[in-house]
Specification:
With 245 residues, this protein is of the alpha/beta class. It has one domain: Rossmann fold (3-Layer(aba) Sandwich), CATH 3.40.50.720. It is built from 8 helices and 7 strands. The chain has a 7-stranded parallel beta sheet, sandwiched between helices. α1 packs across α8 and α3 packs parallel to α4. It is globular. The chain starts with a strand and ends in an 8-residue tail after the last strand. The structure holds NADP nicotinamide-adenine-dinucleotide phosphate. NADP nicotinamide-adenine-dinucleotide phosphate binds next to α1, β2 and α4.
């Protein structure tokens, strides 16, 4: 069975990706930071689909912990065929009032955390000349957003990283792509005030928030042979929000 590792799979988009990849026949490594119960419930759902699952706690903003996550999953399940760089946080606020701690936490987790995780995984994939990596960026990495200078910079940075890695890894048959979700109903977006939610819907041609499954379907596609000629791509899953961007 192919093996996938999903970071931030205790809930939300990461949990949906873990299940979508299990449905496509992957054994799944489930990374999490704090929510052990959520991670275990994702693992149980993967096992219910007849696939193996292993849960591992790691703060991806710590280079050693990120490397430990990759090796723990490979030791338990075997070499990685797919890696989903999904772990992420927000620390929103107007740029002039954003302190270095909020800037740094988001860059360290969302951007450096992805880099720290992808490197040890990529090494093995290049050696084996196979693999698919998908980074979860964001529509705001393409457009920017009021109150999200840190988050938008991290998500734009992920796109630059993905395109560079795609060029580096293509000669060895490893594909690297990004998904740029719009507004998806998860814990991360649960606190958005009603007035702002209405504005978001006005700018979303399909007229609804997305679901974690909407994003997971794109991730599953990018990890499949159907996407065998795709690398360095940024797939928008945003209800049309980025049309014209
Ligand atoms: P979520 O429900 O808040 O889940 C975030 C996940 O990231 C959790 O599993 C969390 O683990 C994990 N995580 C956070 N900090 C971590 C760290 N330092 N090390 C390891 N894992 C860490 O968020 P979500 O909405 O599903 O978002 C998932 C990804 O999609 C994020 O990268 C986010 O930026 C991106 N995204 C979301 C939206 C949206 O509208 N929701 C839109 C575009 C992009 P614990 O639960 O264990 O703390």
């Amino acid at each position: 069975m192919p093996v996938a590792l999903v970071t931030g799979a205790s809930k939300g988009i990461g949990a949906a990706c873990a299940l979508a990849l299990a449905e496509a026949g992957h054994d799944v490594g489930i990374g999490f930071a704090n929510d052990a119960e959520g991670a275990e419930s994702t693992a149980q759902a993967v096992r219910n689909l007849g696939c193996r699952a292993v849960v591992h706690q790691a703060d991806v903003s710590d280079e050693d912990e990120a490397a430990g996550l990759v090796s723990a999953v490979e030791d338990a399940l075997g070499p990685l065929d797919a890696l989903i760089l999904n772990a992420g946080i927000t620390r929103d606020g107007p740029a002039l009032r954003m302190g270095a701690a909020d800037w740094g936490a988001v860059i360290d987790t969302n951007l450096s955390g992805a880099f720290y995780t992808v490197r040890p995984a990529l090494r093995g994939m290049l050696r084996r000349r196979t693999g698919s990596i998908v980074a979860i960026s964001s529509v705001v990495g393409l457009s920017g957003n009021i109150g999200q200078a840190n988050y938008s910079a991290a998500k734009a940075g992920m796109i630059g990283m993905v395109k560079s890695l795609a060029r580096e890894a293509a000669p060895r048959g490893v594909r690297v792509n990004a998904v740029a979700p719009g507004y998806i109903t998860t814990d991360m977006t649960a606190g958005i005030p009603e007035q702002f939610r209405e504005q978001i819907l006005e700018h979303t041609p399909l007229g609804r928030f997305g679901t974690p499954d909407d994003v997971a379907a794109a991730v599953r596609f990018l990890c499949s042979e159907d996407a065998g000629f795709m690398t360095g791509a940024v797939l928008s899953v945003d209800g049309g929000m980025a049309i014209g961007a």
